[in-house]
Amino acid sequence: MSNQPNIAVIGAGVVGLTVAKLVQEQFVGSNVTVFADKFYEETTSHVAAGIFRPGTSFKGPTVETTKKWIHGSWRYWNDILKTPEATKSGVKSVSAYIFSKENEHVTRNYLIDDLLPIYRTINESEYKLAPKGTKYGSYFSTLLIECGRYLPYTADLIVGKGAKLVNGKIENFASLSKFGNFDLVFNCAGLGAKYLCNDHDLVPIRGQVLKVKAPWVKTAFYGDYDTYIIPGFDGIVTLGGVRQYDSYNLNYCRFDAAAIMERCYDMLPSLKDAEVVSHKVGLRPHRTPVRVEAEIINGVKVVHCYGHGGYGVMTAPGTAQHAVEIGLDLLKSNIKNKL
């Protein structure tokens, strides 16, 4: 291994850019190049509301690894929150309610209820905030990460330390050779990894949201049927959502939009006065388990980090930290054959 390894990162969403940032911190003096055919607002990460609330469908290879990723991510975002750069990087605190008319388990989350500063059952007075017919509810305090800020902020950071951003689609790992010889490659291609790795376990889960102008909304709300209201920065609130398994449809659907508005207006009637700013559609890259592991492909040392589903923004740092640890071990090794 050279003193200044050449390292490639495929993908410029929240996972890829976080990996690149951590690589520069762990591999001091390394030459980092990020390859992607989509940057910033074109990425799936940009569509996400970004609240720290991983669903119970998020899984690593073991329960211990899953918790390691989540806890590592929580520490990473909290460390940013404590800095003067928090607002610029798109990280802020937010409180949230989750209500259900049907199932108590909807309002609980074993992955984070012992991690967040507050996660409790709502009291009688708080039922007044809930839609009529609500039987169960929880309140929790958490964080929000807005990728509209975090992605360009992080890109500027890594470029400032010498990283290169290359706009182009990587069809296969061998094609990287035309850009130079890389000692290590991080595959953070999201849904693109389905074709890059011929991974049939990776499937899209279609999401659609509305962005509305509602500066009076300061608290997040969750409800049945994947209903959510999440306040971001500058008075923009995300209303959702849908979760359509194995759908590749990137087109706006007016029926989905109408259903989202009906559910969100029922939960928070004041939203009827909110201006609709935009409609967004994205394909979440879902895989069980999320893939964070090493592989030697045609002599190229590769560390995969993809398949986060709808929880990539919140869990990117923990999985990225794990991927970078694996990468460091791989760089130190002399393995030449497929693992």
From TrEMBL:
D-dopa binds at R284, G310. D-serine binds at Y228. GO terms for molecular function: D-amino-acid oxidase activity; FAD binding. Keywords: FAD, Flavoprotein, Oxidoreductase. Pfam families: DAO. Residues 7-325 form the FAD dependent oxidoreductase domain. The keyword Aminoacyl-tRNA synthetase does not apply. FAD binds at T44, S45. Belongs to the DAMOX/DASOX family. This is FAD dependent oxidoreductase domain-containing protein.
